[in-house]
């Protein structure tokens, strides 16, 4: 028994093929997405639709995917995280891929993360924002000062740094974390470093022979946050050859530094004056404080320890 293709004449086969094509074009024209384009662009005619059948089919398929979006990770579109738009050029048109909101949000989050370098900072503080801060009367002044600082930096001003101090768990580091994230939202880079991490990194840099480059990096970053200053035993080397140089260069370049501490500024002076042998070096303590005290606004935070609540 012969196959149908062997029995049907070439002319009839061509006619059948043409009918299928016309049916496909009809279906394409009547699709809601294409009908909407035709309403907006009445000059779009059937020949253009026929000539651009594959492009328009892709347009329908990918826009439908977006209407039923499974999320960025499972995006089935040809260019992940993008959707097609039809761009007209006179009587011609082409597909242009446009970044979707999910992809844009991911990209912006990645860019913000690149602006912030954190060293030994807990994840919750790294993700802190002013929206996520628990509001309280005791935190009001600190939050207002932090927001004002961010606004001044964003506007290109050169504000004083901030010195948040108070007992454990009152939110000093969290507010500092919110500051660096707010600055990143506005394209301003920062480094937030716990003092213990600074001490370890600088000691390791001796063998790596890059102490100078790390000092330069911390001296030149637009905003430096030193977390929990005064909590670690400090050596004369770290005080005089590392911190003193960083603070001096930042002071000279009018770059603000933010500190969090359990110590008041007077107590911090005593901390910098102690020697590991039990003596005091008041002059050296006073010298480094001259690079801190005049360039910060001290803000005291009080309240309950939220780490246990």
From TrEMBL:
Gene3D superfamilies, per database record? P-loop containing nucleotide triphosphate hydrolases
Q: Which InterPro entries match?
A: AAA+_ATPase, DnaI_N, IstB_ATP-bd, P-loop_NTPase
The processes (GO biological process) annotated in the record are: DNA replication
- Provide an example Pfam family for this protein: DnaI_N
User: What highest taxon heads this organism's lineage?
Assistant: Bacteria
A GO molecular function term, named singly, is: ATP binding
The segment(s) forming the AAA+ ATPase domain are 158-303
Record NCBIfam families: PRK08939.1
> What is the protein name given in its UniProt record?
Primosomal protein DnaI
- What species was this sequence derived from? Seinonella peptonophila
């Amino acid at each position: 028994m012969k196959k149908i293709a062997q029995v049907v004449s070439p002319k009839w086969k061509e006619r059948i093929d043409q009918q299928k094509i016309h049916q496909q074009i009809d279906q394409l024209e009547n699709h809601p997405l294409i009908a909407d384009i035709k309403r907006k662009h009445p000059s779009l005619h059937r020949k253009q639709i026929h000539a651009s059948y594959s492009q328009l089919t892709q347009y329908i398929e990918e826009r439908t995917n977006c209407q039923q979006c499974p999320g960025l990770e499972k995006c089935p579109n040809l260019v992940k995280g993008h959707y097609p738009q039809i761009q007209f050029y006179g009587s011609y048109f082409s597909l242009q891929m446009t970044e979707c909101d999910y992809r844009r949000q991911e990209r912006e989050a990645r860019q913000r993360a690149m602006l912030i370098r954190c060293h030994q900072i807990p994840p919750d503080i790294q993700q802190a924002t002013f929206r996520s801060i628990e509001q309280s009367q005791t935190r009001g002044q600190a939050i207002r000062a932090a927001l004002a600082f961010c606004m001044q930096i964003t506007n290109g001003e050169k504000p004083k740094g901030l010195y948040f101090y108070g007992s454990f768990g009152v939110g000093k580091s969290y507010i500092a974390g919110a500051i660096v994230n707010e600055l990143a939202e506005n394209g301003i880079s920062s480094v937030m470093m716990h003092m213990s991490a600074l001490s370890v990194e600088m000691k390791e840099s001796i063998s790596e022979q890059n102490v100078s480059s790390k000092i330069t990096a911390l001296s030149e970053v637009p905003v430096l946050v030193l977390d929990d200053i005064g909590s670690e035993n400090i050596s004369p080397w770290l005080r005089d050859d590392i911190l003193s140089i960083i603070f001096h260069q930042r002071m000279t370049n009018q770059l603000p530094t933010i500190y969090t501490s359990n110590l008041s500024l007077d107590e911090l002076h005593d901390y910098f004056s102690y020697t590991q042998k039990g003596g005091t070096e008041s002059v050296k303590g006073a010298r480094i404080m001259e690079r801190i005290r005049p360039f910060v606004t001290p803000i005291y935070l009080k309240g309950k320890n939220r780490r246990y609540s």
